[in-house]
Write a structure and sequence with these properties.
The chain is α+β, with helices and mostly antiparallel strands. It has 11 helices and 7 strands. The protein has a 5-stranded mixed β-sheet, sandwiched between helices. Strands 4-5 form a two-stranded antiparallel ribbon. Helix 2 crosses helix 4 and helix 8 packs across helix 9. The longest helix is centred in the middle third of the chain and has 50 residues. The chain binds guanosine-5'-triphosphate. The site of guanosine-5'-triphosphate has 16 residues, from strand 1, helix 8 and helix 9.
Protein backbone atom coordinates (compact mmCIF):
# COMPACT_ATOMS: atom_id res chain seq x y z
CA UNK A 1 0.00 0.00 0.00
CA UNK A 2 1.43 3.38 -0.97
CA UNK A 3 1.37 6.32 1.41
CA UNK A 4 -0.03 9.75 0.61
CA UNK A 5 3.32 11.24 -0.46
CA UNK A 6 4.17 8.31 -2.73
CA UNK A 7 0.73 8.57 -4.34
CA UNK A 8 1.25 12.31 -4.77
CA UNK A 9 4.59 11.75 -6.42
CA UNK A 10 3.11 8.99 -8.69
CA UNK A 11 0.38 11.41 -9.66
CA UNK A 12 2.83 14.15 -10.62
CA UNK A 13 5.08 11.79 -12.55
CA UNK A 14 2.14 10.15 -14.35
CA UNK A 15 0.78 13.55 -15.38
CA UNK A 16 4.24 14.58 -16.57
CA UNK A 17 4.43 11.45 -18.77
CA UNK A 18 0.99 12.16 -20.23
CA UNK A 19 1.99 15.75 -20.96
CA UNK A 20 5.38 14.81 -22.39
CA UNK A 21 3.80 12.33 -24.81
CA UNK A 22 0.89 14.70 -25.57
CA UNK A 23 -1.65 12.09 -24.44
CA UNK A 24 -5.18 12.89 -23.31
CA UNK A 25 -5.58 12.34 -19.56
CA UNK A 26 -8.23 9.65 -20.07
CA UNK A 27 -8.42 6.64 -17.70
CA UNK A 28 -6.94 4.22 -20.28
CA UNK A 29 -3.80 6.33 -20.88
CA UNK A 30 -3.63 7.09 -17.21
CA UNK A 31 -3.71 3.37 -16.35
CA UNK A 32 -0.72 2.60 -18.61
CA UNK A 33 1.43 5.45 -17.30
CA UNK A 34 0.42 5.01 -13.70
CA UNK A 35 1.51 1.37 -13.87
CA UNK A 36 4.73 2.47 -15.60
CA UNK A 37 5.38 5.03 -12.86
CA UNK A 38 4.75 2.51 -10.07
CA UNK A 39 7.02 0.00 -11.93
CA UNK A 40 4.57 -2.70 -10.91
CA UNK A 41 4.73 -4.49 -14.26
CA UNK A 42 8.30 -5.18 -15.37
CA UNK A 43 7.37 -6.29 -18.89
CA UNK A 44 5.31 -3.17 -19.51
CA UNK A 45 8.15 -0.96 -18.30
CA UNK A 46 10.68 -2.79 -20.47
CA UNK A 47 8.50 -2.40 -23.55
CA UNK A 48 7.91 1.31 -22.94
CA UNK A 49 11.61 1.88 -22.20
CA UNK A 50 12.56 0.07 -25.43
CA UNK A 51 10.10 2.21 -27.43
CA UNK A 52 11.48 5.37 -25.89
CA UNK A 53 15.06 4.23 -26.53
CA UNK A 54 14.11 3.91 -30.22
CA UNK A 55 12.74 7.46 -30.04
CA UNK A 56 9.29 6.08 -30.84
CA UNK A 57 6.53 8.51 -29.87
CA UNK A 58 4.09 6.82 -27.49
CA UNK A 59 0.87 7.72 -29.28
CA UNK A 60 -2.74 7.16 -28.14
CA UNK A 61 -2.75 4.12 -30.42
CA UNK A 62 0.34 2.61 -28.79
CA UNK A 63 -1.12 3.29 -25.35
CA UNK A 64 -4.30 1.50 -26.38
CA UNK A 65 -2.29 -1.50 -27.61
CA UNK A 66 -0.27 -1.58 -24.38
CA UNK A 67 -3.46 -1.43 -22.36
CA UNK A 68 -4.95 -4.32 -24.31
CA UNK A 69 -1.75 -6.35 -24.14
CA UNK A 70 -1.04 -5.97 -20.44
CA UNK A 71 -4.45 -5.49 -18.90
CA UNK A 72 -6.83 -7.28 -21.25
CA UNK A 73 -7.09 -10.46 -19.15
CA UNK A 74 -9.66 -8.85 -16.92
CA UNK A 75 -10.49 -5.66 -18.74
CA UNK A 76 -13.50 -4.66 -16.73
CA UNK A 77 -11.79 -5.25 -13.39
CA UNK A 78 -8.76 -3.28 -14.49
CA UNK A 79 -10.87 -0.47 -15.86
CA UNK A 80 -12.75 -0.25 -12.57
CA UNK A 81 -9.44 -0.26 -10.68
CA UNK A 82 -8.13 2.50 -12.93
CA UNK A 83 -11.26 4.54 -12.26
CA UNK A 84 -10.83 4.07 -8.52
CA UNK A 85 -7.13 4.97 -8.64
CA UNK A 86 -8.05 7.95 -10.77
CA UNK A 87 -10.69 9.17 -8.32
CA UNK A 88 -8.28 8.72 -5.45
CA UNK A 89 -5.57 10.69 -7.21
CA UNK A 90 -8.00 13.47 -8.05
CA UNK A 91 -8.57 13.78 -4.32
CA UNK A 92 -4.79 14.01 -3.83
CA UNK A 93 -4.66 16.88 -6.33
CA UNK A 94 -7.49 18.63 -4.54
CA UNK A 95 -5.68 18.27 -1.20
CA UNK A 96 -2.51 19.66 -2.84
CA UNK A 97 -4.48 22.68 -3.94
CA UNK A 98 -5.77 23.24 -0.43
CA UNK A 99 -2.20 22.88 0.99
CA UNK A 100 -1.01 25.58 -1.35
CA UNK A 101 -3.93 27.73 -0.34
CA UNK A 102 -2.96 27.45 3.33
CA UNK A 103 0.68 28.39 2.48
CA UNK A 104 -0.74 31.40 0.77
CA UNK A 105 -2.60 32.16 4.01
CA UNK A 106 0.64 32.04 6.06
CA UNK A 107 2.25 34.66 3.76
CA UNK A 108 -0.67 36.91 4.57
CA UNK A 109 -0.12 36.29 8.31
CA UNK A 110 3.55 37.32 8.00
CA UNK A 111 2.42 40.51 6.35
CA UNK A 112 -0.07 41.17 9.15
CA UNK A 113 2.75 40.74 11.72
CA UNK A 114 4.81 43.47 10.03
CA UNK A 115 1.78 45.75 10.14
CA UNK A 116 1.30 45.03 13.87
CA UNK A 117 4.97 45.89 14.58
CA UNK A 118 4.52 49.17 12.74
CA UNK A 119 1.54 49.98 14.98
CA UNK A 120 3.47 49.35 18.24
CA UNK A 121 5.29 52.72 18.41
CA UNK A 122 8.67 51.54 16.96
CA UNK A 123 11.89 53.57 16.91
CA UNK A 124 13.23 55.03 13.64
CA UNK A 125 15.78 52.20 13.22
CA UNK A 126 13.05 49.63 14.02
CA UNK A 127 10.86 51.28 11.41
CA UNK A 128 13.74 50.94 8.91
CA UNK A 129 13.97 47.21 9.76
CA UNK A 130 10.22 46.79 9.48
CA UNK A 131 10.25 48.54 6.11
CA UNK A 132 13.06 46.23 4.92
CA UNK A 133 11.15 43.16 6.24
CA UNK A 134 7.92 44.43 4.78
CA UNK A 135 9.49 45.01 1.38
CA UNK A 136 10.99 41.51 1.40
CA UNK A 137 7.74 39.90 2.60
CA UNK A 138 5.73 41.83 0.04
CA UNK A 139 8.13 40.83 -2.73
CA UNK A 140 8.26 37.16 -1.78
CA UNK A 141 4.51 37.13 -1.25
CA UNK A 142 3.97 38.64 -4.68
CA UNK A 143 6.37 36.09 -6.23
CA UNK A 144 4.80 33.21 -4.33
CA UNK A 145 1.33 34.46 -5.16
CA UNK A 146 2.16 34.54 -8.84
CA UNK A 147 3.65 31.05 -8.68
CA UNK A 148 0.82 29.68 -6.57
CA UNK A 149 -1.83 31.26 -8.73
CA UNK A 150 -0.37 29.86 -11.90
CA UNK A 151 0.12 26.37 -10.36
CA UNK A 152 -3.38 26.50 -8.88
CA UNK A 153 -4.79 27.62 -12.19
CA UNK A 154 -3.15 24.88 -14.22
CA UNK A 155 -3.87 22.21 -11.61
CA UNK A 156 -7.45 23.33 -11.41
CA UNK A 157 -7.84 23.02 -15.17
CA UNK A 158 -6.13 19.64 -15.09
CA UNK A 159 -8.50 18.40 -12.40
CA UNK A 160 -11.55 19.71 -14.25
CA UNK A 161 -10.44 18.00 -17.46
CA UNK A 162 -9.61 14.73 -15.68
CA UNK A 163 -12.95 14.75 -13.91
CA UNK A 164 -14.79 15.46 -17.18
CA UNK A 165 -12.96 12.60 -18.93
CA UNK A 166 -13.65 10.32 -16.02
CA UNK A 167 -17.35 11.18 -15.97
CA UNK A 168 -17.56 10.66 -19.71
CA UNK A 169 -15.77 7.32 -19.49
CA UNK A 170 -18.12 6.35 -16.66
CA UNK A 171 -21.22 7.24 -18.64
CA UNK A 172 -19.90 5.49 -21.78
CA UNK A 173 -19.37 2.37 -19.68
CA UNK A 174 -23.11 2.17 -18.91
CA UNK A 175 -24.49 3.26 -22.31
CA UNK A 176 -25.37 1.01 -25.22
CA UNK A 177 -23.51 2.53 -28.18
CA UNK A 178 -26.10 1.51 -30.79
CA UNK A 179 -29.33 2.71 -29.20
CA UNK A 180 -28.02 5.28 -26.70
CA UNK A 181 -30.08 3.76 -23.87
CA UNK A 182 -28.50 2.12 -20.84
CA UNK A 183 -26.64 -1.15 -21.35
CA UNK A 184 -26.79 -4.29 -19.20
CA UNK A 185 -24.22 -2.93 -16.77
CA UNK A 186 -26.23 0.27 -16.26
CA UNK A 187 -29.38 -1.80 -15.84
CA UNK A 188 -27.82 -3.96 -13.11
CA UNK A 189 -26.69 -0.86 -11.22
CA UNK A 190 -30.05 0.88 -11.52
CA UNK A 191 -32.06 -2.22 -10.65
CA UNK A 192 -30.02 -2.81 -7.49
CA UNK A 193 -30.71 0.78 -6.39
CA UNK A 194 -34.40 0.61 -7.33
CA UNK A 195 -34.84 -2.58 -5.29
CA UNK A 196 -33.08 -1.07 -2.27
CA UNK A 197 -35.29 2.03 -2.53
CA UNK A 198 -38.50 0.00 -2.90
CA UNK A 199 -37.54 -2.03 0.16
CA UNK A 200 -36.59 0.99 2.28
CA UNK A 201 -39.66 3.01 1.35
CA UNK A 202 -42.08 0.07 1.08
CA UNK A 203 -42.97 1.30 -2.39
CA UNK A 204 -44.06 -0.58 -5.51
CA UNK A 205 -41.56 -1.53 -8.18
CA UNK A 206 -42.33 -3.28 -11.46
CA UNK A 207 -40.29 -4.52 -14.38
CA UNK A 208 -41.01 -5.18 -18.05
CA UNK A 209 -38.93 -7.53 -20.21
CA UNK A 210 -39.43 -6.83 -23.90
CA UNK A 211 -38.25 -8.80 -26.94
CA UNK A 212 -38.74 -7.74 -30.56
CA UNK A 213 -40.66 -10.39 -32.51
CA UNK A 214 -39.15 -12.19 -35.51
CA UNK A 215 -36.21 -9.83 -35.52
CA UNK A 216 -33.98 -12.36 -37.24
CA UNK A 217 -36.26 -12.16 -40.29
CA UNK A 218 -35.58 -8.40 -40.55
CA UNK A 219 -31.83 -8.99 -40.45
CA UNK A 220 -32.04 -11.86 -42.91
CA UNK A 221 -34.33 -10.05 -45.36
CA UNK A 222 -33.02 -6.49 -45.21
CA UNK A 223 -29.49 -6.77 -43.80
CA UNK A 224 -27.83 -6.12 -40.50
CA UNK A 225 -27.70 -2.34 -41.03
CA UNK A 226 -31.45 -2.13 -41.40
CA UNK A 227 -31.73 -4.41 -38.35
CA UNK A 228 -29.61 -1.91 -36.39
CA UNK A 229 -31.82 0.98 -37.50
CA UNK A 230 -34.93 -0.89 -36.42
CA UNK A 231 -33.34 -1.54 -33.01
CA UNK A 232 -32.58 2.18 -32.65
CA UNK A 233 -36.08 3.12 -33.71
CA UNK A 234 -37.67 0.67 -31.26
CA UNK A 235 -35.54 2.09 -28.43
CA UNK A 236 -36.45 5.67 -29.31
CA UNK A 237 -40.20 4.90 -29.56
CA UNK A 238 -40.06 3.24 -26.14
CA UNK A 239 -38.07 6.09 -24.61
CA UNK A 240 -40.59 8.64 -25.93
CA UNK A 241 -43.49 6.69 -24.50
CA UNK A 242 -42.06 6.26 -20.99
CA UNK A 243 -42.11 8.66 -18.06
CA UNK A 244 -38.80 10.24 -17.09
CA UNK A 245 -38.83 8.25 -13.84
CA UNK A 246 -38.91 4.96 -15.79
CA UNK A 247 -35.60 3.47 -16.87
CA UNK A 248 -35.07 1.81 -20.25
CA UNK A 249 -32.10 -0.47 -20.93
CA UNK A 250 -30.97 -2.78 -23.70
CA UNK A 251 -30.73 -6.12 -21.95
CA UNK A 252 -28.87 -7.63 -24.90
CA UNK A 253 -29.48 -8.38 -28.61
CA UNK A 254 -33.06 -7.44 -29.39
CA UNK A 255 -34.23 -7.58 -25.79
CA UNK A 256 -35.00 -4.53 -23.63
CA UNK A 257 -35.90 -3.99 -19.98
CA UNK A 258 -37.92 -1.23 -18.34
CA UNK A 259 -37.68 -0.53 -14.61
CA UNK A 260 -40.76 1.26 -13.26
CA UNK A 261 -40.30 2.66 -9.75
CA UNK A 262 -43.44 3.47 -7.69
CA UNK A 263 -45.53 1.45 -10.11
CA UNK A 264 -47.81 -1.50 -9.30
CA UNK A 265 -48.43 -4.46 -11.58
CA UNK A 266 -51.67 -3.14 -13.04
CA UNK A 267 -50.10 0.16 -14.12
CA UNK A 268 -46.97 -1.59 -15.44
CA UNK A 269 -49.14 -3.86 -17.62
CA UNK A 270 -50.81 -0.74 -19.05
CA UNK A 271 -47.38 0.77 -19.80
CA UNK A 272 -46.24 -2.45 -21.52
CA UNK A 273 -49.38 -2.56 -23.63
CA UNK A 274 -48.98 1.11 -24.51
CA UNK A 275 -45.39 0.40 -25.71
CA UNK A 276 -46.60 -2.62 -27.68
CA UNK A 277 -49.21 -0.48 -29.48
CA UNK A 278 -46.83 2.45 -30.04
CA UNK A 279 -44.23 0.20 -31.68
CA UNK A 280 -46.67 -1.71 -33.89
CA UNK A 281 -48.43 1.51 -34.95
CA UNK A 282 -45.59 2.35 -37.32
CA UNK A 283 -45.36 0.81 -40.78
CA UNK A 284 -41.61 0.38 -41.32
CA UNK A 285 -39.79 0.66 -44.61
CA UNK A 286 -36.13 0.73 -45.61
CA UNK A 287 -34.62 4.17 -46.15
CA UNK A 288 -33.02 3.82 -49.58
CA UNK A 289 -35.62 2.19 -51.86
CA UNK A 290 -38.53 2.29 -49.43
CA UNK A 291 -39.02 -1.49 -49.31
CA UNK A 292 -41.79 -2.34 -46.88
CA UNK A 293 -40.51 -4.06 -43.74
CA UNK A 294 -43.95 -4.16 -42.17
CA UNK A 295 -45.02 -3.64 -38.59
CA UNK A 296 -42.72 -4.46 -35.73
CA UNK A 297 -44.29 -6.21 -32.78
CA UNK A 298 -43.01 -7.01 -29.31
CA UNK A 299 -43.63 -9.66 -26.69
CA UNK A 300 -43.46 -8.49 -23.11
CA UNK A 301 -43.34 -10.03 -19.63
CA UNK A 302 -44.43 -7.83 -16.72
CA UNK A 303 -43.81 -8.55 -13.08
CA UNK A 304 -43.85 -6.76 -9.74
CA UNK A 305 -41.02 -6.91 -7.24
CA UNK A 306 -41.73 -9.11 -4.23
CA UNK A 307 -40.43 -8.34 -0.71
CA UNK A 308 -36.81 -9.46 -0.13
CA UNK A 309 -36.46 -10.54 -3.75
CA UNK A 310 -33.14 -9.89 -5.51
CA UNK A 311 -32.58 -8.49 -9.01
CA UNK A 312 -31.75 -11.85 -10.57
CA UNK A 313 -35.03 -13.52 -9.51
CA UNK A 314 -37.04 -10.51 -10.64
CA UNK A 315 -35.34 -10.46 -14.07
CA UNK A 316 -35.72 -14.23 -14.43
CA UNK A 317 -39.45 -14.06 -13.77
CA UNK A 318 -39.91 -11.17 -16.23
CA UNK A 319 -37.95 -13.18 -18.81
CA UNK A 320 -40.10 -16.28 -18.25
CA UNK A 321 -43.29 -14.26 -18.79
CA UNK A 322 -41.80 -12.71 -21.91
CA UNK A 323 -41.04 -16.17 -23.36
CA UNK A 324 -44.53 -17.27 -22.39
CA UNK A 325 -45.86 -14.30 -24.42
CA UNK A 326 -43.71 -15.49 -27.36
CA UNK A 327 -45.00 -19.02 -27.11
CA UNK A 328 -48.59 -17.82 -26.80
CA UNK A 329 -48.40 -16.20 -30.24
CA UNK A 330 -46.22 -13.03 -29.80
CA UNK A 331 -47.36 -9.39 -29.95
CA UNK A 332 -48.75 -9.62 -26.44
CA UNK A 333 -48.12 -8.90 -22.77
CA UNK A 334 -48.07 -11.59 -20.08
CA UNK A 335 -47.84 -10.68 -16.40
CA UNK A 336 -47.96 -12.00 -12.83
CA UNK A 337 -51.76 -11.84 -12.97
CA UNK A 338 -51.89 -14.22 -15.99
CA UNK A 339 -49.39 -16.67 -14.57
CA UNK A 340 -49.54 -16.56 -10.79
CA UNK A 341 -48.04 -20.07 -10.55
CA UNK A 342 -44.63 -18.83 -11.84
N1 LIG B 1 -28.97 -5.92 -36.54
C1 LIG B 1 -28.76 -6.43 -35.32
N2 LIG B 1 -29.22 -7.64 -35.02
C2 LIG B 1 -29.03 -8.14 -33.80
C3 LIG B 1 -28.34 -7.40 -32.83
N3 LIG B 1 -28.31 -8.15 -31.69
C4 LIG B 1 -28.94 -9.32 -31.97
N4 LIG B 1 -29.39 -9.32 -33.24
C5 LIG B 1 -30.07 -10.36 -33.97
O1 LIG B 1 -31.37 -10.57 -33.45
C6 LIG B 1 -31.80 -11.86 -33.90
C7 LIG B 1 -32.61 -12.51 -32.82
O2 LIG B 1 -33.08 -13.70 -33.35
P1 LIG B 1 -33.90 -14.76 -32.53
O3 LIG B 1 -33.34 -14.88 -31.14
O4 LIG B 1 -34.01 -16.00 -33.34
O5 LIG B 1 -35.32 -14.13 -32.32
P2 LIG B 1 -36.36 -13.51 -33.32
O6 LIG B 1 -36.00 -13.70 -34.74
O7 LIG B 1 -36.59 -12.08 -32.88
O8 LIG B 1 -37.61 -14.38 -33.02
P3 LIG B 1 -38.51 -14.36 -31.73
O9 LIG B 1 -37.76 -13.69 -30.63
O10 LIG B 1 -38.74 -15.81 -31.43
O11 LIG B 1 -39.75 -13.64 -32.08
C8 LIG B 1 -30.55 -12.63 -34.28
O12 LIG B 1 -30.52 -12.80 -35.67
C9 LIG B 1 -29.41 -11.71 -33.86
O13 LIG B 1 -28.30 -11.79 -34.73
C10 LIG B 1 -27.84 -6.11 -33.18
O14 LIG B 1 -27.21 -5.38 -32.40
N5 LIG B 1 -28.08 -5.66 -34.44
Amino acid sequence: MYNHYQMQSFLNTTLEHLKKHKLHPIPENYKVWYEYTCTSNTELNEEIDALMAQQTAISEEICHKLLKKYFVSNEQKDFDAARLAFSHLLNVVISQISNWSSNHGSFCQALEKCTQKLNSDPSISEIKDIITDLTQEAKSMADASNDINSVLGSLNNEVKQLRKDLEQAGSEAVTDSLTGVSNRRGLDERLRNAIAEAQNQHSDLSLIMIDLDHFKTINDSFGHNTGDKVLKLAASIMKKNLRSSDFLARYGGEEFTVILPNTNLKSAVKVADHLRKAISAKQLSTGRNGQIIGRLTISAGVTQHRPQENAETLLDRGDKYMYKAKHSGRNRVISDSDLSSY
